[in-house]
Batch of 2 targets.
Target 1
Amino acid sequence: MPNSERASGRRFDHDYGVTTHAVLFLTDLEPEAVGDAGAHATHYEAVPVADFRALLAHVPHEAIERSTFVDVGAGMGRAMLLASTYAFRQVYGIEVSPSLYEVAKENLAQARVPTRRCNDLRLVRDDARIAQYPPGDLVVFLFNPFDAEALRATLASIAGRRHAGETWILYHTPVERAELDGIANLTIVAEETYGIVART
Ligand SMILES: C[S@@+](CC[C@H](N)C(=O)[O-])C[C@H]1O[C@@H](n2cnc3c(N)ncnc32)[C@H](O)[C@@H]1O
């Protein structure tokens, strides 16, 4: 990670009064609790603040206002806290690791969010591959949480949600982006060096 990203991550933690800056491997944390998900997971790292905002800048304001933001692999909650500064209907996070879930829960409860626009934040401890996703329009955020097989299962669960609406996918470090090709009617809206934005 470049020094500038590390510095802005530390500044985020300082300004919001939280701890999100860390690099951790799930299998080192709690192999039994995460089970099979650990074999498919990458590692925990918080999203670079500027990249998150730049990806979200491709989503029109009207789409944000009618959507639930979903962080697939919420980690310590940085992306959820950043999303709460936008006018989403709800911010929803799914995290499989019990200890990261606990840290995120504490971070969400105690954060000083400078310009909060969404107050409805929900965090669940679950496996994103088989989780229930909120109905309606979604902005789905993925910061390279897992391998192709887990991504395929997760995309199928999202597509199969009740009362599905428009789905935006913001995929940072999209190493398994070929999996998106399997989604019907997918439009690539933007491609940056660090991530892609797509819509169905
Ligand atoms: C690179 S971190 C991203 C953290 C957060 N989204 C952010 O941007 O700050 C990926 C996260 O995905 C979680 N994860 C991996 N596999 C998962 C699964 N099957 N279900 C839910 N979370 C998972 C990891 O525990 C980790 O916290």
Target 2
Amino acid sequence: MNSYNVITLFPNLIEEWKNTGIINQALKNNLVAINSTNLRDYGIGTYKQVDDAPYGGGPGMVLMPEPLDKAITSSKADINVFLTPSGQQLNENLISELLEYKSINLVCGRYEGYDQRILEIHSDYEISIGQSVVSGGEIPALYLLEALIRKIPDVLGNPESLKSETFTDNKIDYPVYTRPEIFKNKKVPEVLLSGNHQKIDEWKKNNLKDI
Ligand SMILES: C[S@@+](CC[C@H](N)C(=O)[O-])C[C@H]1O[C@@H](n2cnc3c(N)ncnc32)[C@H](O)[C@@H]1O
């Protein structure tokens, strides 16, 4: 079973997400294991400090290396993935590559990010989910996990869903429709109502777009 451990200052975000949708089903069916590790538990001193001011000055705080090092080494995994806006851009090829690993630590930054030395020591991948900056690595980690987990066999109710998805073979998926047949004067394409499966398949193929 693939297992994922999210190292974060906000484990409640991960735990709440685990109760929803296909992730919850996948957990119940023992198709995946997801754990969250509270970085604060590895903080220094009475106040469990995890961040400090940057050397050389500048705005914000930096995640200290010691708590991260302890959290990572006490959660042994095949690889450590750091979420960072300056990392390699996530795409479906990278998702397929990550799927090969049985256990992954996903490390979530906050504030101004990680002390650079922790990346040099522990990082196997630095991954960005897009060219915009959010305040923490938790939403990027959940984004990555959802993209990974839906590709694990038996997680999706119908595995056909994965075959014609956007980004597969550099295509954008065909448009989909449901009831009613007419909505605000807009009709569902006639062929989809025809019951002619050969014609419907043709229409679907012709309505895939190149990226
Ligand atoms: C405010 S950001 C730090 C930004 C950093 N000072 C910079 O400019 O690269 C705090 C944390 O959010 C996460 N983060 C923000 N945007 C992200 C993105 N596009 N992809 C992945 N992680 C991101 C990272 O974990 C990062 O350490």
